Amino acid sequence: MSYFAFLSEHGPTMLLGTVTTIKVLVCSTILYVIISLIFGLMRLSKNPIIQGTATVYIEFFRGTSLLVQLFWFYYVLPFFGLTLEAFTAGVVAIGMNFGAYGAEIVRGGILAVPKGQWEGAFALNFTPAKRMRKIIIPQIFPIILPPAANLTVELLKATALVALVTVVDLTFEAKQINSITWLSAQCFGTALLIYYIISRFFLVPFLRWLEVLAARKVGKDKI
Amino acid sequence: MNAEWRWDFAIEILPQMLWATLNTILAAGVGYAIAAIVGLLFLLGQRTPIKIVNMINREIVEFIRSTPLLIQLFFVYFVLPQFGITLSAWVCGMITIGLHFGTYLSEVYRGALEGVPKTQWEACRALNFSTFYTYRKIVLPQAFPIAIPGMGNYLVGIFKDTPLLSTIGVAELFHAATAVGGYNYRYLEPYTIVGIIFLTLSIPAAMWIRKLEKNVNLAQGKIKKEQL
Protein backbone atom coordinates (compact mmCIF):
# COMPACT_ATOMS: atom_id res chain seq x y z
CA MET A 1 0.00 0.00 0.00
CA SER A 2 1.59 3.23 -1.06
CA TYR A 3 1.73 6.20 1.26
CA PHE A 4 -0.76 8.14 -0.87
CA ALA A 5 -3.26 5.32 -0.73
CA PHE A 6 -2.79 5.29 3.03
CA LEU A 7 -3.36 9.04 3.21
CA SER A 8 -6.48 8.97 1.06
CA GLU A 9 -7.95 6.20 3.17
CA HIS A 10 -6.99 7.33 6.67
CA GLY A 11 -6.13 11.01 6.14
CA PRO A 12 -9.65 12.33 6.91
CA THR A 13 -9.73 10.41 10.21
CA MET A 14 -6.39 11.84 11.20
CA LEU A 15 -7.54 15.34 10.29
CA LEU A 16 -10.57 14.90 12.55
CA GLY A 17 -8.19 13.90 15.32
CA THR A 18 -6.06 16.95 14.56
CA VAL A 19 -9.10 19.19 15.06
CA THR A 20 -9.59 17.69 18.54
CA THR A 21 -5.90 18.17 19.30
CA ILE A 22 -6.17 21.84 18.35
CA LYS A 23 -9.29 22.21 20.50
CA VAL A 24 -7.42 20.73 23.49
CA LEU A 25 -4.47 23.00 22.71
CA VAL A 26 -6.58 26.18 22.59
CA CYS A 27 -8.70 25.39 25.67
CA SER A 28 -5.76 24.35 27.85
CA THR A 29 -3.67 27.32 26.69
CA ILE A 30 -6.42 29.73 27.78
CA LEU A 31 -6.72 27.93 31.11
CA TYR A 32 -2.99 27.88 31.73
CA VAL A 33 -2.55 31.57 30.93
CA ILE A 34 -5.29 32.51 33.42
CA ILE A 35 -3.90 30.21 36.12
CA SER A 36 -0.33 31.44 35.64
CA LEU A 37 -1.35 35.09 35.97
CA ILE A 38 -3.40 34.44 39.12
CA PHE A 39 -0.87 32.20 40.85
CA GLY A 40 2.10 34.28 39.71
CA LEU A 41 0.54 37.28 41.45
CA MET A 42 -0.45 35.20 44.49
CA ARG A 43 3.13 33.99 44.79
CA LEU A 44 4.26 37.60 45.27
CA SER A 45 1.60 38.41 47.84
CA LYS A 46 2.72 39.56 51.27
CA ASN A 47 -0.10 37.61 52.92
CA PRO A 48 1.49 34.30 54.05
CA ILE A 49 -1.72 32.31 53.49
CA ILE A 50 -2.16 33.45 49.89
CA GLN A 51 1.55 33.04 49.16
CA GLY A 52 1.61 29.63 50.86
CA THR A 53 -1.36 28.40 48.87
CA ALA A 54 0.32 29.40 45.63
CA THR A 55 3.63 27.81 46.64
CA VAL A 56 1.97 24.52 47.58
CA TYR A 57 -0.01 24.51 44.34
CA ILE A 58 3.07 25.21 42.22
CA GLU A 59 5.31 22.69 43.99
CA PHE A 60 2.61 20.04 43.86
CA PHE A 61 1.91 20.37 40.16
CA ARG A 62 5.55 20.74 39.19
CA GLY A 63 6.63 17.89 41.42
CA THR A 64 4.39 15.20 39.98
CA SER A 65 4.12 13.88 36.49
CA LEU A 66 1.48 15.27 34.12
CA LEU A 67 0.37 11.76 33.24
CA VAL A 68 -0.22 10.93 36.90
CA GLN A 69 -2.27 14.11 37.32
CA LEU A 70 -4.25 13.34 34.20
CA PHE A 71 -5.11 9.84 35.40
CA TRP A 72 -5.87 11.20 38.84
CA PHE A 73 -8.36 13.68 37.42
CA TYR A 74 -9.96 11.09 35.18
CA TYR A 75 -9.98 7.93 37.30
CA VAL A 76 -9.77 9.10 40.91
CA LEU A 77 -12.05 12.15 41.00
CA PRO A 78 -15.13 9.99 40.28
CA PHE A 79 -14.45 8.41 43.70
CA PHE A 80 -15.21 11.79 45.20
CA GLY A 81 -18.40 12.08 43.17
CA LEU A 82 -16.93 14.41 40.57
CA THR A 83 -17.02 12.75 37.18
CA LEU A 84 -15.28 14.73 34.47
CA GLU A 85 -15.66 14.07 30.79
CA ALA A 86 -12.40 12.85 29.24
CA PHE A 87 -11.96 16.07 27.28
CA THR A 88 -12.58 18.25 30.34
CA ALA A 89 -10.27 16.15 32.51
CA GLY A 90 -7.54 16.45 29.89
CA VAL A 91 -7.89 20.21 29.51
CA VAL A 92 -8.06 20.79 33.28
CA ALA A 93 -5.04 18.57 34.02
CA ILE A 94 -2.88 20.13 31.31
CA GLY A 95 -4.04 23.66 32.15
CA MET A 96 -3.34 23.25 35.85
CA ASN A 97 0.02 21.55 35.29
CA PHE A 98 1.31 24.17 32.87
CA GLY A 99 -0.28 26.92 34.96
CA ALA A 100 2.14 25.97 37.73
CA TYR A 101 5.13 26.36 35.41
CA GLY A 102 3.66 29.54 33.94
CA ALA A 103 3.14 31.06 37.39
CA GLU A 104 6.88 30.91 38.00
CA ILE A 105 7.49 32.65 34.68
CA VAL A 106 4.98 35.38 35.58
CA ARG A 107 6.60 35.80 38.99
CA GLY A 108 10.03 36.17 37.38
CA GLY A 109 8.59 38.64 34.87
CA ILE A 110 7.07 40.84 37.55
CA LEU A 111 10.30 40.84 39.53
CA ALA A 112 12.23 41.74 36.39
CA VAL A 113 10.33 45.00 35.82
CA PRO A 114 12.88 47.75 36.60
CA LYS A 115 12.76 49.16 40.11
CA GLY A 116 12.35 52.69 38.79
CA GLN A 117 8.90 51.79 37.48
CA TRP A 118 7.78 50.65 40.93
CA GLU A 119 9.21 53.76 42.52
CA GLY A 120 7.68 55.99 39.87
CA ALA A 121 4.24 54.52 40.46
CA PHE A 122 4.77 54.90 44.19
CA ALA A 123 5.82 58.52 43.80
CA LEU A 124 2.68 59.23 41.77
CA ASN A 125 0.62 57.84 44.65
CA PHE A 126 -0.93 54.96 42.71
CA THR A 127 -2.75 52.37 44.78
CA PRO A 128 -1.01 48.96 44.74
CA ALA A 129 -3.79 47.49 42.58
CA LYS A 130 -3.62 50.31 40.09
CA ARG A 131 0.18 50.18 40.04
CA MET A 132 0.04 46.48 39.21
CA ARG A 133 -2.67 46.85 36.59
CA LYS A 134 -1.53 50.00 34.83
CA ILE A 135 2.24 50.01 35.22
CA ILE A 136 3.70 46.59 36.01
CA ILE A 137 1.51 44.04 34.22
CA PRO A 138 1.64 45.76 30.79
CA GLN A 139 5.42 45.68 30.98
CA ILE A 140 5.85 42.02 31.87
CA PHE A 141 4.66 40.69 28.51
CA PRO A 142 7.85 41.34 26.52
CA ILE A 143 9.77 39.66 29.37
CA ILE A 144 7.57 36.61 29.86
CA LEU A 145 6.59 35.88 26.28
CA PRO A 146 9.80 34.17 25.12
CA PRO A 147 9.80 31.58 27.96
CA ALA A 148 6.01 31.32 27.75
CA ALA A 149 6.34 30.54 24.04
CA ASN A 150 8.62 27.61 24.86
CA LEU A 151 6.14 26.44 27.45
CA THR A 152 3.29 26.63 24.93
CA VAL A 153 5.19 24.43 22.48
CA GLU A 154 5.70 21.99 25.36
CA LEU A 155 1.96 22.19 25.96
CA LEU A 156 1.22 21.24 22.36
CA LYS A 157 3.36 18.13 22.87
CA ALA A 158 1.67 17.40 26.17
CA THR A 159 -1.76 17.36 24.51
CA ALA A 160 -0.80 13.97 23.05
CA LEU A 161 -1.22 12.53 26.55
CA VAL A 162 -4.99 13.10 26.57
CA ALA A 163 -5.24 10.19 24.15
CA LEU A 164 -4.45 7.93 27.11
CA VAL A 165 -7.65 8.98 28.87
CA THR A 166 -9.66 8.17 25.72
CA VAL A 167 -9.93 11.63 24.17
CA VAL A 168 -10.14 10.96 20.45
CA ASP A 169 -7.30 13.23 19.34
CA LEU A 170 -4.56 12.82 16.75
CA THR A 171 -2.52 10.41 18.88
CA PHE A 172 -5.60 8.33 19.64
CA GLU A 173 -6.50 8.10 15.95
CA ALA A 174 -2.94 7.15 15.03
CA LYS A 175 -2.98 4.38 17.62
CA GLN A 176 -6.38 3.23 16.42
CA ILE A 177 -5.36 3.11 12.76
CA ASN A 178 -2.18 1.32 13.76
CA SER A 179 -4.11 -1.38 15.56
CA ILE A 180 -6.34 -1.94 12.48
CA THR A 181 -3.80 -1.78 9.66
CA TRP A 182 -0.41 -2.38 11.40
CA LEU A 183 1.10 0.23 9.10
CA SER A 184 2.99 1.69 12.04
CA ALA A 185 5.53 3.72 10.09
CA GLN A 186 2.80 5.44 8.10
CA CYS A 187 0.40 6.29 10.88
CA PHE A 188 2.86 7.33 13.57
CA GLY A 189 5.06 9.04 10.97
CA THR A 190 2.06 11.05 9.75
CA ALA A 191 1.10 11.95 13.31
CA LEU A 192 4.65 13.14 14.05
CA LEU A 193 4.61 15.22 10.87
CA ILE A 194 1.26 16.82 11.73
CA TYR A 195 2.49 17.80 15.20
CA TYR A 196 5.64 19.19 13.64
CA ILE A 197 3.66 21.21 11.08
CA ILE A 198 1.32 22.63 13.72
CA SER A 199 4.25 23.64 15.87
CA ARG A 200 6.64 24.90 13.22
CA PHE A 201 4.30 26.65 10.82
CA PHE A 202 1.40 27.77 13.01
CA LEU A 203 2.11 27.88 16.71
CA VAL A 204 5.68 29.20 16.72
CA PRO A 205 5.08 31.97 14.11
CA PHE A 206 1.97 33.03 16.04
CA LEU A 207 3.94 33.24 19.30
CA ARG A 208 6.74 35.19 17.58
CA TRP A 209 4.11 37.60 16.28
CA LEU A 210 2.80 38.04 19.83
CA GLU A 211 6.34 38.74 21.04
CA VAL A 212 6.81 41.46 18.42
CA LEU A 213 3.41 42.91 19.28
CA ALA A 214 4.19 42.97 23.00
CA ALA A 215 7.58 44.60 22.40
CA ARG A 216 5.95 47.25 20.22
CA LYS A 217 3.34 48.02 22.88
CA VAL A 218 5.99 49.13 25.33
CA GLY A 219 8.11 50.75 22.65
CA LYS A 220 10.95 48.24 22.78
CA ASP A 221 10.90 47.26 19.12
CA LYS A 222 13.39 49.90 18.02
CA ILE A 223 16.33 48.39 19.89
CA MET B 1 -17.43 2.97 44.52
CA ASN B 2 -16.91 4.96 47.68
CA ALA B 3 -14.57 7.81 48.35
CA GLU B 4 -13.07 6.35 51.48
CA TRP B 5 -9.37 5.96 51.61
CA ARG B 6 -8.62 2.39 52.66
CA TRP B 7 -5.43 2.19 54.69
CA ASP B 8 -5.28 -1.61 54.66
CA PHE B 9 -5.35 -1.63 50.87
CA ALA B 10 -2.81 1.20 50.63
CA ILE B 11 -0.41 -0.62 52.97
CA GLU B 12 -0.97 -3.90 51.17
CA ILE B 13 0.09 -2.48 47.80
CA LEU B 14 2.85 -0.23 49.12
CA PRO B 15 5.74 -2.76 48.90
CA GLN B 16 4.83 -3.49 45.29
CA MET B 17 4.79 0.22 44.48
CA LEU B 18 8.11 0.89 46.17
CA TRP B 19 9.65 -1.99 44.27
CA ALA B 20 8.39 -0.51 41.00
CA THR B 21 9.82 2.86 42.03
CA LEU B 22 13.28 1.33 41.72
CA ASN B 23 12.48 0.56 38.09
CA THR B 24 11.39 4.16 37.55
CA ILE B 25 14.62 5.47 39.06
CA LEU B 26 16.64 3.05 36.96
CA ALA B 27 14.81 4.14 33.81
CA ALA B 28 15.39 7.80 34.60
CA GLY B 29 19.07 7.19 35.33
CA VAL B 30 19.78 5.18 32.20
CA GLY B 31 17.69 7.53 30.05
CA TYR B 32 19.59 10.49 31.42
CA ALA B 33 22.97 8.90 30.78
CA ILE B 34 22.01 8.24 27.16
CA ALA B 35 20.56 11.74 26.80
CA ALA B 36 23.76 13.30 28.13
CA ILE B 37 25.81 11.48 25.49
CA VAL B 38 23.33 12.11 22.67
CA GLY B 39 23.32 15.76 23.67
CA LEU B 40 27.09 15.85 23.17
CA LEU B 41 26.67 14.33 19.70
CA PHE B 42 24.10 16.97 18.74
CA LEU B 43 26.40 19.65 20.14
CA LEU B 44 29.20 18.27 17.99
CA GLY B 45 26.93 18.40 14.94
CA GLN B 46 26.13 21.98 15.76
CA ARG B 47 29.70 23.12 16.18
CA THR B 48 31.31 21.39 13.19
CA PRO B 49 32.40 24.03 10.68
CA ILE B 50 30.49 22.30 7.85
CA LYS B 51 27.34 24.23 6.92
CA ILE B 52 25.30 21.29 5.64
CA VAL B 53 25.93 19.27 8.81
CA ASN B 54 24.78 22.24 10.93
CA MET B 55 21.62 22.55 8.89
CA ILE B 56 20.68 18.88 9.04
CA ASN B 57 21.51 18.80 12.74
CA ARG B 58 19.30 21.80 13.41
CA GLU B 59 16.36 20.33 11.50
CA ILE B 60 16.63 17.01 13.33
CA VAL B 61 16.82 18.75 16.71
CA GLU B 62 13.89 20.99 15.78
CA PHE B 63 11.80 18.01 14.66
CA ILE B 64 12.48 15.93 17.76
CA ARG B 65 11.85 18.89 20.04
CA SER B 66 8.51 19.82 18.54
CA THR B 67 6.89 16.38 18.43
CA PRO B 68 5.42 14.55 21.43
CA LEU B 69 7.53 12.01 23.29
CA LEU B 70 4.52 9.69 23.43
CA ILE B 71 4.29 9.30 19.64
CA GLN B 72 8.04 9.00 19.36
CA LEU B 73 7.83 6.10 21.78
CA PHE B 74 5.12 4.45 19.69
CA PHE B 75 7.10 5.13 16.54
CA VAL B 76 10.27 3.48 17.83
CA TYR B 77 8.40 0.62 19.47
CA PHE B 78 6.14 -0.28 16.55
CA VAL B 79 8.14 0.75 13.49
CA LEU B 80 11.56 -0.76 14.18
CA PRO B 81 10.20 -4.35 14.12
CA GLN B 82 8.94 -3.66 10.58
CA PHE B 83 12.56 -3.26 9.55
CA GLY B 84 13.53 -6.46 11.30
CA ILE B 85 14.88 -4.84 14.47
CA THR B 86 12.99 -6.17 17.46
CA LEU B 87 13.93 -4.48 20.68
CA SER B 88 12.42 -4.90 24.11
CA ALA B 89 10.17 -2.18 25.48
CA TRP B 90 12.92 -1.20 27.91
CA VAL B 91 15.49 -0.62 25.19
CA CYS B 92 13.00 1.27 23.00
CA GLY B 93 12.03 3.49 25.89
CA MET B 94 15.61 4.27 26.79
CA ILE B 95 16.55 5.07 23.18
CA THR B 96 13.56 7.38 22.75
CA ILE B 97 14.07 9.21 26.02
CA GLY B 98 17.76 9.52 25.25
CA LEU B 99 17.07 11.01 21.82
CA HIS B 100 14.28 13.29 22.99
CA PHE B 101 16.08 14.78 25.96
CA GLY B 102 19.44 14.71 24.16
CA THR B 103 18.15 17.53 21.97
CA TYR B 104 17.28 19.56 25.06
CA LEU B 105 20.61 18.84 26.72
CA SER B 106 22.49 19.88 23.58
CA GLU B 107 20.82 23.29 23.95
CA VAL B 108 21.94 23.42 27.58
CA TYR B 109 25.52 22.59 26.58
CA ARG B 110 25.42 25.18 23.80
CA GLY B 111 24.16 27.86 26.16
CA ALA B 112 26.88 26.99 28.66
CA LEU B 113 29.65 27.17 26.06
CA GLU B 114 28.35 30.49 24.79
CA GLY B 115 28.15 31.71 28.37
CA VAL B 116 31.94 31.62 28.62
CA PRO B 117 33.13 35.14 27.76
CA LYS B 118 34.79 35.57 24.38
CA THR B 119 37.81 37.22 26.00
CA GLN B 120 38.68 33.85 27.56
CA TRP B 121 39.07 32.38 24.08
CA GLU B 122 41.06 35.35 22.92
CA ALA B 123 43.38 35.13 25.91
CA CYS B 124 44.02 31.45 25.16
CA ARG B 125 44.74 32.31 21.55
CA ALA B 126 47.16 35.01 22.71
CA LEU B 127 48.91 32.51 25.01
CA ASN B 128 49.16 30.08 22.10
CA PHE B 129 47.23 27.27 23.82
CA SER B 130 46.03 24.43 21.62
CA THR B 131 42.26 24.09 21.07
CA PHE B 132 42.17 20.91 23.13
CA TYR B 133 44.05 22.52 26.00
CA THR B 134 41.80 25.60 25.83
CA TYR B 135 38.69 23.45 26.14
CA ARG B 136 40.06 21.23 28.87
CA LYS B 137 41.68 23.80 31.11
CA ILE B 138 39.91 27.08 30.42
CA VAL B 139 36.52 26.75 28.73
CA LEU B 140 34.95 23.56 30.11
CA PRO B 141 35.69 24.31 33.80
CA GLN B 142 33.87 27.61 33.32
CA ALA B 143 31.07 26.23 31.18
CA PHE B 144 30.20 23.37 33.50
CA PRO B 145 28.75 25.46 36.35
CA ILE B 146 26.58 27.33 33.84
CA ALA B 147 25.24 23.99 32.58
CA ILE B 148 24.46 22.52 36.00
CA PRO B 149 21.01 24.05 36.62
CA GLY B 150 19.79 23.15 33.13
CA MET B 151 21.19 19.62 33.34
CA GLY B 152 19.62 19.12 36.75
CA ASN B 153 16.25 20.37 35.59
CA TYR B 154 16.21 17.88 32.75
CA LEU B 155 17.13 15.06 35.13
CA VAL B 156 13.98 15.87 37.07
CA GLY B 157 12.16 16.32 33.75
CA ILE B 158 13.14 12.84 32.57
CA PHE B 159 12.11 11.42 35.91
CA LYS B 160 8.67 12.96 35.52
CA ASP B 161 8.30 11.70 31.97
CA THR B 162 9.09 8.06 32.79
CA PRO B 163 5.39 7.25 33.37
CA LEU B 164 5.00 7.53 29.60
CA LEU B 165 7.05 4.35 29.33
CA SER B 166 4.14 2.43 30.83
CA THR B 167 2.24 2.92 27.54
CA ILE B 168 4.61 0.56 25.75
CA GLY B 169 4.67 -1.85 28.68
CA VAL B 170 7.76 -0.97 30.69
CA ALA B 171 7.06 -2.18 34.21
CA GLU B 172 7.76 1.04 36.08
CA LEU B 173 5.84 2.72 38.88
CA PHE B 174 2.89 3.98 36.88
CA HIS B 175 2.50 0.66 35.10
CA ALA B 176 2.40 -1.09 38.46
CA ALA B 177 -0.23 1.34 39.72
CA THR B 178 -2.44 0.78 36.69
CA ALA B 179 -2.05 -2.98 37.02
CA VAL B 180 -2.87 -2.97 40.73
CA GLY B 181 -5.78 -0.59 40.18
CA GLY B 182 -7.23 -2.68 37.39
CA TYR B 183 -6.85 -5.89 39.37
CA ASN B 184 -8.65 -4.56 42.45
CA TYR B 185 -10.99 -2.06 40.76
CA ARG B 186 -9.61 0.65 43.00
CA TYR B 187 -7.64 3.49 41.46
CA LEU B 188 -7.78 5.95 44.34
CA GLU B 189 -4.94 4.50 46.41
CA PRO B 190 -2.53 3.38 43.65
CA TYR B 191 -2.59 6.67 41.73
CA THR B 192 -2.42 8.74 44.90
CA ILE B 193 0.57 6.74 46.12
CA VAL B 194 2.25 7.29 42.75
CA GLY B 195 1.71 11.02 43.14
CA ILE B 196 3.13 11.02 46.65
CA ILE B 197 6.18 8.99 45.62
CA PHE B 198 6.85 11.40 42.76
CA LEU B 199 6.54 14.38 45.10
CA THR B 200 8.83 12.89 47.73
CA LEU B 201 11.48 12.19 45.12
CA SER B 202 11.33 15.23 42.86
CA ILE B 203 10.99 18.04 45.39
CA PRO B 204 14.17 17.09 47.32
CA ALA B 205 15.92 16.57 43.98
CA ALA B 206 14.94 20.05 42.84
CA MET B 207 16.08 21.52 46.16
CA TRP B 208 19.37 19.65 45.94
CA ILE B 209 19.97 21.01 42.44
CA ARG B 210 19.31 24.56 43.67
CA LYS B 211 21.84 24.03 46.45
CA LEU B 212 24.39 22.56 44.05
CA GLU B 213 23.96 25.57 41.81
CA LYS B 214 24.66 27.90 44.73
CA ASN B 215 27.71 25.92 45.82
CA VAL B 216 29.20 25.93 42.36
CA ASN B 217 28.62 29.66 42.01
CA LEU B 218 30.20 30.14 45.40
CA ALA B 219 33.24 28.09 44.45
CA GLN B 220 33.57 30.05 41.24
CA GLY B 221 33.47 33.32 43.14
CA LYS B 222 30.41 34.51 41.20
CA ILE B 223 28.51 35.28 44.41
CA LYS B 224 29.79 36.02 47.89
CA LYS B 225 28.82 34.19 51.05
CA GLU B 226 27.09 37.27 52.44
CA GLN B 227 24.69 37.28 49.52
CA LEU B 228 23.19 33.96 50.51
Walk me through the structure.
Chain A has one domain: Orthogonal Bundle (MetI-like fold). Chain A contains eight helices and no strands. In chain A, α1 crosses α4, α1 runs antiparallel to α7 and α3 crosses α4. Chain A is mostly helical and 223 residues long. Chain A starts with a helix and ends in a 6-residue tail after the last helix. Chain A is 81% helix and 0% strand. With 228 residues, chain B is mostly helical. Chain B has one domain: MetI-like fold. Helices cover 79% and strands 0% of the residues of chain B. Chain B has eight helices and no strands. Chain B is flat, with a radius of gyration of 22 Å. The interface between A and B is large, with 42 and 38 residues.
Topology of helices and strands:
The complex is a heterodimer of chains A (223) and B (228).
Chain A: H1 3-43, H2 48-63, H3 66-76, H4 86-112, H5 115-123, H6 128-158, H7 170-181, H8 184-217
Helix pairs in contact in A: 1-2, 1-4, 1-7, 2-4, 3-4, 4-6, 5-6, 6-8, 7-8
Chain B: H1 7-47, H2 51-65, H3 69-79, H4 89-115, H5 118-126, H6 131-161, H7 173-184, H8 188-220
Summarize the structure.
Chain A has 223 residues and is mainly α.
Features:
heterodimer, A: mainly alpha, flat, B: 228 residues, mainly alpha, MetI-like fold
Structural class of chain B: mainly alpha
Give the quaternary arrangement of the chains.
Answer: heterodimer
CATH architectural type of chain B: Orthogonal Bundle
Mean pLDDT of chain A: 91
SSE string of chain A = HHHHHHHH
Number of helices of chain B: 8
Number of strands of chain A: 0
Order of helices and strands of chain B: HHHHHHHH
Mean pLDDT of chain B: 89
Number of domains of chain B: 1
Helical stretch tally of chain A: 8
Q: What percent of residues of chain A are in strands?
A: under 5%
Largest sheet of chain A: none
* Major β-sheet annotation of chain B: none
Q: What's the CATH topology label of chain B?
A: MetI-like fold
CATH superfamily name of chain A?
Answer: MetI-like
Uncertain segments of chain B:
none
- The rounded distance between the terminal residues' Cα atoms of chain A is 55 Å
What is the CA-atom radius of gyration of chain B, in angstroms?
A: 22 Å
Radius of gyration of chain A: 21 Å
